[in-house]
Amino acid sequence: MILYFSATGNTKYIANKLAKDLDDETINLLKKLKENDYSKIHSDKPFIVCVPIYTCETPKFVNKFLRNVELEGNKEIYFIFSSGGYAGIANNICKRIARKKKMKYMGRKELTMPRNYVASNMYPMLPKEEILRRLNEATKQIHETSKQISNHEVLKGRHIWLFESIITIPFVPVWTKIKNKTKKFYTKDSCIGCSKCVNICPINNIILENGKPKWITNCAHCMACISNCPKNAIEYRGITETKEKYTISKYIDEIDEK
Ligand SMILES: Cc1cc2nc3c(=O)[nH]c(=O)nc-3n(C[C@H](O)[C@H](O)[C@H](O)COP(=O)(O)O)c2cc1C
User: Fold this and answer.
1) How far lies 165's CA from each of 22, 57, 98, 155, 199, in Å?
2) The CATH number of domain 180-250, selected from 3.40.50.300, 3.30.70.20, 3.40.30.10, 2.60.40.1180
3) Where are the beta strands (DSSP E) in 29-125?
4) Cβ–Cβ contacts within 10 Å for residue 147, how many?
5) 236 in helix, strand or coil?
6) 248 C-alpha vs ligand 1 centroid, how far in Å?
7) What is the CATH number of domain 2-162?
8) Which among 246, 251, 252, 248 is positioned nearest to 116, based on CA atoms?
């Protein structure tokens, strides 16, 4: 069983490719995350969790879900990290989650995907050639990973140094508190109040007020709302107005393998 969360499509792409290779099923966790639905999920095959990386970790709301959900049947769990190139200490976090669930940690694969973090000037959007290069390379690596999983291999990754944990653990909460502001989100006149942003926010951080979205608090900055708006009506003040927003759907037809 392949469980995934994806804000802008990269991780969904990975999950679907794995499912096809392994003749397995996928569950999009969005609804379960929104509803805090921790009900039992059964799988006879190993569980494979595909997640994006946010600030050197797996998203906190995904970690919370994984800690609480009952995974029944097969006791092995793989993780696939979809990042812009640095998965930080995600491996340690997921290993701990597996241990707490009394499951066998079967390792992780880190896939370098196009960056999607449009609400920050620190990570400029990549040129199209680089986006397609990453997607084509990742596609090859997904197939290799599928083979490893079907051969029941443990997935190995780079060593995580102690200093990475020492820096990341105190840094992330401070950084996200400073950076993940909601007050900079706003909608342009083209917003039609369709509620798509409300429906795709994994942590229910957006409500409709007078027919327009309003961001409350505790935003994960996942970029689901801003990047998937059908009218391109959402902006992050002073940063996104002049930028192309990323979703994989803009590039999917040009990936070598259809
Ligand atoms: C808030 C936020 C933080 C991110 N932090 C990292 C990071 O620490 N390292 C990294 O390599 N990529 C980082 N990224 C990039 C995403 O992990 C990457 O683009 C991922 O493939 C997006 O997956 P999705 O399209 O399924 O949502 C970050 C993205 C966001 C939105």
Assistant:
1) 33, 10, 18, 21, 34
2) 3.30.70.20
3) 41-43, 47-52, 71-73, 76-83, 104-112
4) 11
5) strand
6) 13
7) 3.40.50.360
8) 246
Q: What is the pLDDT of residues 86-119, one digit of tens each?
A: 999 999 999 999 999 999 999 999 999 999 999 9
Please report how the helices 128-150 and 10-22 are oriented relative to each other, as an axis angle in degrees rounded to 10: 30
Q: Is the CB of 55 under 6 A from ligand 1?
A: yes
Is residue 9 in contact with ligand 1, taking CB distance under 6 Å? yes
CA of 54 relative to ligand 1 center, distance in Å: 5
Q: How confident is the model at residue 234 (pLDDT cuts 50, 70, 90)?
A: very high
Tell me the pTM.
Answer: 0.96
Sign of CA dihedral 7, 8, 9, 15: negative
Task: Give domain limits for the chain.
Answer: 2-162, 180-250
Locate the ligand 1 atom nearest the alpha carbon of residue 7 and give its number: 27
Q: How far is the CA of 161 from the centre of ligand 1 (A)?
A: 21
Ligand 1 centroid to residue 83 C-alpha, Å: 5
